[in-house]
Design goal:
Helix 1 packs across helix 2. Helix content is about 35%, strand content about 20%. The chain has helices spanning about 65-90, 105-115, 125-135, 170-180, 195-200, 210-215, 220-230, 250-270; strands at about 25, 30-35, 40-45, 95-100, 120, 135-140, 155-160, 180-190, 220, 235-240, 280-285. It has eight helices and eleven strands. It is α/β, with parallel strands linked by helices and about 290 residues long. The strands form two sheets. Strands 6-5-4-7-8-11-10 form a seven-stranded mixed sheet, with helices on both faces. The structure holds zinc ion. Zinc ion binds near residues 12, 15, 17, 36 and 40. The site of zinc ion (ZN) has 7 residues, from loops.
């Protein structure tokens, strides 16, 4: 006998149409993923998770690594975060930065190394404690209700966060509020058009309850996320990593100039074979 899954999202979070005609993408006894006509993939129904308490505490962050391996991984993550912030600085002026979903503080460390003043926010008490122990300002905050003032930040980064909420519009309205006019938003997020998940959805780590199926609510593509951001008052400036960085040092800028045509071809190739598992996007809150 099939157990009836309670509806978690009765309407598409992007176009608001009722999901009764949405096509099933993957379905399990615990939950069901659908694709709306507008292109958005979202979790329509789900049974309550008996293991859901303290989901985002300790173990979630993979803190089991010890010593050298942890140090190396941390270094790589901070380096990646530096590149992402430099992407953002192509389109918004340097200033106070908020990292939403600050985890173990990789982005905060990268921001500090670039001379910015970083603040972190996270739903996890564990993460906040960790970031504070590293000397950073970090506040516990929920996506739709952040403990920060209007226009307090010039830069906001949200990496692998927006897919975790059933109400992305509330999250983006809050980001827009705390971002000053002209300020920039960087998003990194799983790619709903990832080839492997399109070809074998039922076996995809995106949808399986024992992988990301429980913690995620929505899968975006550059097109659907751009539409969502535009309707919440943002202007999208770039999808995919930047080829050149205005705020990088002179030597690096020269290297980037030489490599740019090859990297552009590489990016087009990766997109054409749907090999991108996550995508990056930079948007701004327009002046006035
Ligand atoms: Zn829709």
């Amino acid at each position: 006998m099939a157990i009836e899954q309670p509806i978690v999202l009765a309407a598409c979070p992007l176009c608001a149409t009722d999901g009764t005609n949405a096509r099933t993408v993957a379905t399990y006894p615990e939950l069901t993923w659908v694709r709306c006509d507008c292109g958005l993939i979202y979790k329509r129904s789900e049974l309550p998770d008996p293991k859901s308490t303290d989901f985002y505490e300790g173990g979630y962050f993979g803190t089991g690594d010890q010593g050298r391996r942890y140090t190396q991984r941390r270094k790589r993550r901070v380096q990646k975060s530096r590149n992402q912030i430099l992407d953002l600085l192509n389109h918004a002026a340097p200033g106070p930065l908020l990292d939403i979903g600050c985890s173990m503080g990789y982005t905060l460390e990268a921001a500090r190394s670039l001379g910015l003043t970083p603040t972190g926010s996270d739903i996890s008490v564990f993460a906040i404690r960790e970031c504070r122990s590293l000397g950073f300002r970090a506040e516990r905050g929920e996506l739709g209700r952040m403990p920060f003032g209007d226009g307090e930040f010039s830069l906001v980064t949200m990496k692998h966060v927006l897919e975790h909420t059933p109400d992305p519009r509330a999250a983006l309205r809050e980001v827009r509020r705390i971002l000053r006019p002209g300020g920039g938003l960087f998003v990194a997020i799983p790619h709903g058009g990832y080839g492997k998940s399109l070809r074998h959805p039922q076996r995809s780590q995106f949808y399986l309850p024992e992988r990301h199926g429980r913690e995620h609510f929505v899968y975006y593509t550059p097109a659907t996320l751009t539409t969502l951001l535009a309707s919440e008052g943002f202007s999208v400036k770039r999808v995919n990593p930047a080829l050149m960085h205005r705020h990088a040092g002179a030597a690096r800028r020269l290297g980037e100039t030489l490599a740019a045509p090859f990297r552009a071809i590489g990016q087009a190739l990766v997109d054409s074979i749907q090999a991108r598992k996550e995508f990056w996007l930079v948007a701004v809150r327009p002046e006035a």
